Amino acid sequence: MMQSVREYYPIYPLSLRTPSKSKTRLGTRDIYVDVPWQAYDFLISTLFKGISSELKKEEVRKNWHKYIQDYKESLTFQDKPIVSIYLTSSSLSKRKFLILKVNWEVFFRYLEDKAKNLINAVKTDGKNVMIVYQEIWFNFLKIIKEIRSLKPLRLEYFIENFKKLIIITEDYNQVKNILKDFERLINEMEDYLIKKSKYIQLYTIRFKMSLKTVYNLMEELNIVAIYYILRNLLEDLIRFFIYFDLGNKVVRYPDLVLSSMFIYDYKAPLNLSIKNSRIYSLKNFRNEFRKKFLKATNKILSRNEVISIFDITDELINIKMRRLGVDKNLLKDFCVEYDLECTNLVNLYNACSSIIHNQSPLPFFSLLEVKFFKYFLKIFMETLKNLIIKFLSLL
User: Which residues contact residue 162 at a Cβ distance below 8 angstroms, ignoring those fewer than 6 apart?
Assistant: First the structure.
């Protein structure tokens, strides 16, 4: 297994070179992503010492032992070294070789623990999600300052290998299982509500397509893009619950509201030129809905015996009804209105927004990024599950 791990583990788009005058050669050219930068700092500085004088095995061993004690928090996990650096020789060469060897089992436990600590920071404040990418980038940049040679990234090759790696570490299957569990919940919700509204499928098919997109992005290992889909999924769920509730309590005809608002949310942006065309207050949106949606339906009924959802959307555009916007303030209103625990919901929304606005896909694959995402997805889907269960209990 460890041989496969070493073969599949992602590397930075960098390469190490042995200085031409060095009496010691590098036995490690690849730079593994997320391996603490301090290890490569020692490796490179030791290598350059070998230019002026011949390195000794015992000298390297003692220096590494001292160095690892100085950086114990970064280079060890549960008192075991994450990597080992040592000098060795070969019968095929007169030169000695400086080797960096990763203790993969310890390293994976280290990354797992780091991901758990980072998700705890996000539970406190969603914006802390950027600490994840700060850690990943900082580690890369601390190494790149020492490197002059850049290697091209063969994307297809690295995707294939990295996918094999996260299957071995079980992160891939755990993410898939989280998505499958939530998809089952959506199906159960659909089966329950279809008796009350046939138009619910306009929304549940959107939820399912969001999950399908997450599946596809996971296949491409585009983790950053998944946060955009997750935020959309959360926003769509919130709108659906509010529309259904208004249709149930205000109009007493959920189908009419669900179908009309589904179309209106697509049609209005192309026709409304009014400022502040969205409302980010649940109370204000409810008041505007009561006033304008009922006005639109009554006006149509005064002309026709049958109400067409397209007539409703046209009339809503004529009277300039603002659309429901979802942000952290709307989420807080929603939680208060339906007696929900709000901290997780808002923090998860803020986390997704922070990544959407601040982070592009990495130029390399990071196991830390995947492990963090696994825990984030678990909390995200558990929060949406609790949201769905609570909402259904109120019907």
Answer: 8, 10, 221, 365
* End-to-end CA, the chain: 52
**Beta pairing, strands 24-26 & 76-77:** unpaired
At how many degrees (to 10) do helices 367-393 and 155-168 cross?
60
Q: How far apart are CA 172 and CA 110, in angstroms?
A: 18
The pLDDT of residue 104 is 96
The first and second tokens of residue 273, run together, are 């030129």
For the chain, how many residues are written?
395
- Whole-number pLDDT of residue 147: 58
Q: How far is CA 146 from CA 38, 39, 40, 41, 206, in A?
A: 12, 12, 9, 8, 48
Confidence label for 96 from pLDDT (cuts 50, 70 and 90):
confident
Which position has the token pair 């997780």?
Answer: 344
33: its two tokens: 């992503």
Query: Which has the closest alpha carbon to 325: 235, 241, 244?
Result: 235
d(CA 277, CA 285): 11
Q: Which residues are CB-contacts of 219 (< 8 A; sequence separation ≥ 6)? A: 163
Question: What mean pLDDT, rounded, does the chain reach?
Answer: 90
Calculate mean pLDDT across residues 183-209: 93
CB atoms within 10 A of CB 21: 8
Between strands 93-102 and 24-26, the pairing is parallel
Query: Which of helix, strand or coil describes residue 95?
Result: strand
| Cβ atoms of 269 and 278 closer than 8 Å | no
Q: Which residue has the tokens 């306009």?
A: 202
Written as six digits, the tokens of 97 are 């070789």
Q: Which two three-digit tokens encode residue 367?
A: 């196991």
CA R_g for the chain: 28
**Cβ atoms < 10 Å from Cβ of 88:** 11
Question: Smallest Cα–Cα separation from 166: which of 365, 30, 381?
Answer: 365
Domain map (residue ranges) of the chain: 2-150, 155-393
One-letter amino acid identity for 86?
Y
